[in-house]
Design brief:
single chain, 100 residues, mainly alpha, 3 helices, 60% helix, membrane, transmembrane helix
Length: 100
């Protein structure tokens, strides 16, 4: 975006600078107002040239992908808590006490 903003901003700055000098403003305010106008114009020009639009559903958010990975991973894990539907073979075994 910077490569699009700088050339347009410099052109607009010089245009404002020369225009304000021709109108009769002193040099310092002409430079300052020209710089402000150049920055604003450069940003608008870069925004205008940058392709974009409404995001499509196909473009996935990295957070959504991470959430989906975590769901897949947690469904593969066998945890001894959190699910009452554990089968008997999946339940943790209790330690038996040794007779003395």
């Amino acid at each position: 975006m910077v490569d699009k903003a700088i050339p347009a901003g410099l052109k607009i700055w010089l245009t404002f600078l020369l225009g304000l000098l021709v109108v009769g403003y002193p040099i310092v305010p002409s430079i300052l107002f020209g710089a402000i106008g150049g920055v604003a114009g450069g940003l608008v020009s870069a925004w205008w040239q940058t392709p974009g639009g409404v995001p499509t559903a196909e473009a996935e958010n990295p957070l959504k992908r991470m959430q989906q990975r975590l769901r897949e991973r947690s469904s593969r894990l066998r945890l001894p808590f959190g699910s009452r539907e554990l089968q008997r073979s999946q339940r943790p075994r209790r330690m038996r006490r040794r007779p003395r």
